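ugh finaly. both done.
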Amino acid sequence: MSLRSRCLRPFVFAGILALAGAGIGLETARASLPAATRIVLQKAGRYMPTDLYLRRGDTIALRNGDARLTHHAFIEAERFSFDAGAQEPGAETRLTLVESGDFVIQCGIHPKMKLTLHVE
């Protein structure tokens, strides 16, 4: 083993320990993050954004940004259902996600409108 390898070995070991410790700290910090609220805009016949990655307990606010169109957001899934009813222009409906999985929010009035929720 060369002199250089022997000299660097303690630093490499210390670096590995530091990285391992940082990973544990990051996981702990992630677990303690508060629930988030995300705004989803319903406008021009689509949801913006069209895909969201969320955690259980997060809330989405479905905001009708159209000046004249009414929307009707709903989810029909085996473990979870939601129906916002008629959402007039400017109206906002909130949904707190209590189940993990992938869910599709559709509009009962505009069938091409789809928003996919990925909840962990």
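ok and the 2nd:
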Amino acid sequence: MTNQHIQNSSSSSSINLGHDGPCSSFDQLSSCLSINYLPDSILRCIGEYLPIPSRAIMASALTRSACFDSDTLDFSDIGRDLASKLTDSDVSSILVSIDAADRLKVLKLIGCENITGAGLDPLRGSIVLELIDLNTSVITAIASDGFPPCFTLSEDAVIPILDSIISEKYRALKLLELPLVWRKKESAQLAAFLVRYNNAQRSRTCFCCECSADFQASSWTDHFKGSSFWGLQRHTCYDCTEHVCVDCDAAFCDECKKNFCNDCCPIQYCACGKASCMDCFGVEYCESCDEAYCQDCRPVFMCECCNRFRCMECAIHLICSNCNESNCMQCANENNVQWCEVCEEDNCNDCRHKAFKDGSLDCKGCRGLLLPRIIQENEAQQREIEMLKFVVLNAVNKEIVHNVRAV
């Protein structure tokens, strides 16, 4: 094709980049180099292959809201390595790019360990936000005592933003999850905010998702000094943000300190009264005695061979002291965990075999348990050697026959 043909072709047609008006030759060349020139429909298709928070980050990078088409932003979905590197400037840019104040209903900050909360400013006055979880790490969300090594979220930065939301007449905010550090600190600033939050929530009439009755709770968040539930919200399911009246009483998980309705996350109760949701596994169900137990009362183990959950009273479980692999006594054999009568320890034979190879397996009883496996390995090795001998002899014979014929 000649240069004249190329010039005629480029002058007679223009590429539609998703923007109004014809494109110059420079724009046509740039469109091949920049993803930002792709139309919104293509960006949405690309976004479908990414986790939702990654779509939000993409929207911020391209300053194109078309990449993000959700009303939920959970930073834990992108992994701690990336989320922990986000700054307040990054979070603010993301929220602005996705038009969070008018679109976002659920915001969870788990993983954002490097922010003070100033980056949440684009949410000021939001009337669509229904749930905001201010726990910035998994440790902060589930730890029962102590503090995380690094916690940067500031009450001074976040509380004014929360005040701007609850002061809106037509606000949608249903659930507020406070960090464990704040709840243990019980500052006067946060206590005063909880009073304002309770008053704001109390001014609304809510409907129970269990019995459909309307109600107005007297206290939505515990703000009484010294209470073990200080700063925890009641009457609201963490998953669906629907309300549960006082009579129906939302189930409370002692592990993650969250309320759930019966439809979202069933709660299991130990005989001692401890409760745990299905995600925390603090209370396990025994298939044999048809009871649930916490780890303090009667641990329930899963046999990794038959995949059955049973307590130690119903089935003795052997747990490897090195790798914690476990199986019930019925499934114990030379391929998994066995109890040694000599050293009186439970170990899986993978760990015993590793110690045998290292020359550190001194117990005669353990060696005896490992003997069937060693015999099988020796037999397999011997078969492999015989096979190699056959292959080598066959090759040598073929070479001899070839040389004889050549002579």
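summary for the 2nd one i guess: The radius of gyration is 32 Å.
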